[in-house]
Design brief:
The structure is a single chain. With 250 residues, the protein is α/β, with parallel strands linked by helices. The chain folds into two domains: 134 residues, 3-Layer(aba) Sandwich (Rossmann fold); 101 residues, LytTr DNA-binding domain (OB fold (Dihydrolipoamide Acetyltransferase, E2P)). It contains seven helices and 15 strands. Helix 1 packs across helix 5 and helix 4 packs antiparallel against helix 6. It is elongated, with a radius of gyration of 21 Å. 32% of the residues are buried.
């Protein structure tokens, strides 16, 4: 029986090598017939090598991953590789073959490969509906909030959003917590969410929004509840069940 073949399309050399190594461990019979470091190389490799499976980074130079996926639709099984969890969740919910989120995780990759194996005998999925969803999510949007004027006693302090560890609702105000301290702004968490970049700030509880870059780790207690550990802060943040899917990879 012919061994299945695959192409890896990932523009970061370290991640490309890591993905190849992990695939060798979790799916040793899979033959990697080509690797691509941009969308144009990926498109050419699809035509020349006609692989069974394409491991595809969504954001690449040249042709975007979405444009490459459009060429692969209905012809090759696709596993999306992405640093953006909102893309991954959309891909999963819209019925794509599967996805893995950076940083790569061997266990999650093994799960994705198992799902692909189960579908190899069937025709590859038509990705048009999925690509429409992803295109809307990746389309240019309004400029997101870059800094905040926050009250600290009688003073007003200018805080860049990169400094923020998390925001938390506090009656009529919102707490703005940084590594150095905290202050208040007279804006609801709901209104603030509309101004924050969703790729950088995740709502993890009805009253809490965390800076993804400030997450040091995620822990699960004996009851299965998730808590987020932060860089530069001692407290942990609770993750409510509706937002637990954000941490499937962790």
């Amino acid at each position: 029986m012919r061994a299945p073949t695959a192409i890896i399309a990932e523009d970061e050399p370290v991640l490309r090598a890591q993905l190849r190594g992990l695939l060798g461990a979790v799916w040793p019979e899979l033959q990697i017939v080509a690797t691509a470091e941009d969308g144009l190389q990926a498109a050419r490799a699809l035509q020349e090598r006609a692989p069974d499976v394409l491991f595809l980074d969504i954001q690449m130079p040249g042709l975007s991953g979405l444009e490459v996926a459009r060429q692969a639709s209905g012809r090759h099984h696709v596993v999306f590789v992405t640093a953006y969890n909102q893309y991954a969740v959309a891909a999963f919910e819209e019925g794509a073959v599967d996805y893995v989120v950076k940083p790569l995780n061997a266990e999650r990759l093994a799960t994705a490969c198992a799902r692909v194996k189960s579908r190899l005998s069937a025709a590859p999925a038509n990705l048009e509906n999925l690509l429409r969803v992803l295109a809307k999510m990746s389309a240019p949007r309004q400029s997101y909030l870059r800094w905040i004027n926050a009250s600290m006693g009688a003073d007003v302090k200018l805080i860049t959003v990169d400094e923020v560890r998390y925001f938390q609702a506090d009656t009529k105000y919102t707490r703005v917590v940084t590594a150095q301290g905290e202050c208040l702004i007279r804006k609801s968490l709901k209104d603030l969410l509309d101004e924050l970049d969703p790729a950088l700030f995740w709502q993890i509880h009805r009253s809490t929004v965390v800076n993804v870059g400030a997450i040091a780790g995620v822990a699960r207690d004996f009851a299965g509840h998730l808590t987020v550990k932060l860089k530069g802060r001692k407290e942990t943040l609770a993750v409510s069940q509706p937002f637990a899917h954000l941490f499937r990879q962790m």
